[in-house]
Amino acid sequence: MNDSSPSAPNSPAQHTSSSNNRGSGPADQAVAMDRMYRLTRHIYDLTRRYYLLGRDRLLDKVVTSPTTATLEVGCGTARNLIKLAGRRDHGLLYGLDASHEMLETAAQNSALAEIKRRGSGQIVLRQGLAEQLDSQRMFGRNEPFDTIFFSYCLSMIPTWPGAIDAAMANLRPGGTLLIVDFWDQRGLPAFFAAGLKRWLSLFHVHYRPEVHEALVELGRSGRGDVTFDSVAKRYAYIATIRKQ
Ligand SMILES: C[S@@+](CC[C@H](N)C(=O)[O-])C[C@H]1O[C@@H](n2cnc3c(N)ncnc32)[C@H](O)[C@@H]1O
């Protein structure tokens, strides 16, 4: 451990699209997320840049090429996917989120970004739950993904073990699962850690030491090679899991 659509789902590169299956599925988490982000989505990117640390470091670890397929689970406003789409060789980019509200902003943002880039780097967006991820059913893909990442998403999902299992199941052998999320703030003053914890709980966000432990266990079980990097004195961690 290192401490330091309107479109056919089979043609993902062609369109930025967002499904609109409101009301379907076990919708509790989706309803809660829609309630939370209905208004805040409009100021989300502006405000979160100051405390969702390590996202760009995670993106630096995402390897893309013209033939890769990359999925962000809990993509929110598509801020991360839009950054990847700015690469010359970004490959196929997909986003999944529980919140219809967030996906509306994501679709608007990625359409704007697309116009700026004159048509390159489209992103396929779908509504759905992380724990039900199914590459074929949700995205019409017969192949697993090369990279799947969660950026400050698992700390919002009460049923996070299912989300990790589903991601591993939809990743090709040798593919990479990346996670950036809040850590234990052990390197920071105690009052800071306590205040942050209280504040985050207002947004349904919870530091879950058990996620970290489960990832360590995943490495021990031989399902993947797992390494951790610390962001800002254990404010957050980036986990890199290479699937065996
Ligand atoms: C804190 S935001 C992070 C957004 C984005 N990843 C980023 O880095 O800016 C967490 C996102 O996870 C989504 N989310 C929460 N629970 C989810 C679930 N069970 N399945 C899919 N997405 C979920 C929320 O709707 C929200 O858009």
Radius of gyration: 17 Å
Any guess at the CATH architecture? 3-Layer(aba) Sandwich
Number of domains: 1
User: Which fold does the CATH topology refer to?
Assistant: Rossmann fold
**Roughly how much helix do the residues carry, as a percent range?**
25-40%
Shape descriptor reads globular
What does this structure look like?
This protein is of the alpha/beta class. The chain has a single domain (12-243), classed as Vaccinia Virus protein VP39 (Rossmann fold, 3-Layer(aba) Sandwich), CATH 3.40.50.150. Helix content is 36%, strand content 22%. It is built from nine helices and eight strands. It has helices at residues 28-40, 44-48, 55-60, 79-85, 100-116, 135-139, 160-169, 190-201, 209-220; strands spanning 17-18, 69-73, 92-97, 123-127, 145-151, 171-182, 224-231, 236-243. An eight-stranded mixed sheet has the order 1-4-3-2-5-6-8-7, with helices on both faces. α4 links the parallel β2 and β3 (92-97). The longest helix is centred in the middle third of the chain and has 17 residues, at 100-116. Residues 1-25 have low confidence and may be disordered. The chain binds S-adenosylmethionine (SAM). Residues 29, 33, 48, 52, 55, 73-76, 79-80, 96-99, 102, 129-130, 151-153, 156-157 line the site of S-adenosylmethionine.
